[in-house]
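Entry 14. Structure prediction run on the chain below.
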Amino acid sequence: MVCDIHFIDDHRSRYKRLNALAVPTLHLHGDSGYALRPLMLTPILNAAVGSPEEHYTDLHCRVRNTVERCIGALKTRWRCLLAHRVLHYEPTKAAKIVNEQQSFTIFAALVGS
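Output returned:
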């Protein structure tokens, strides 16, 4: 999961619960504005050239960039995902709507529309 400042500001208690779980396979990908924590993966600034840290940071940035572009494409196609165009449904129903939108987006990409 890619994390931005809105996740932390708007869902501080959810983040604390996730952090308390410390599930080994669950990681949030944050930018350099976040502290490195067991749950939060952040890039390593000023890593030495050719070091494992530089390699990690390069991979981290690639993953984050790919996910951010995907989210941007979804928000472009489905305007209700934008910050001020929220879905006025319970979280479970809103999640189902978003999942359906993603399915439609993938289908549209496959058929070329």
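The chain has a mean pLDDT of 76.
Filed with the rest of this week's runs.
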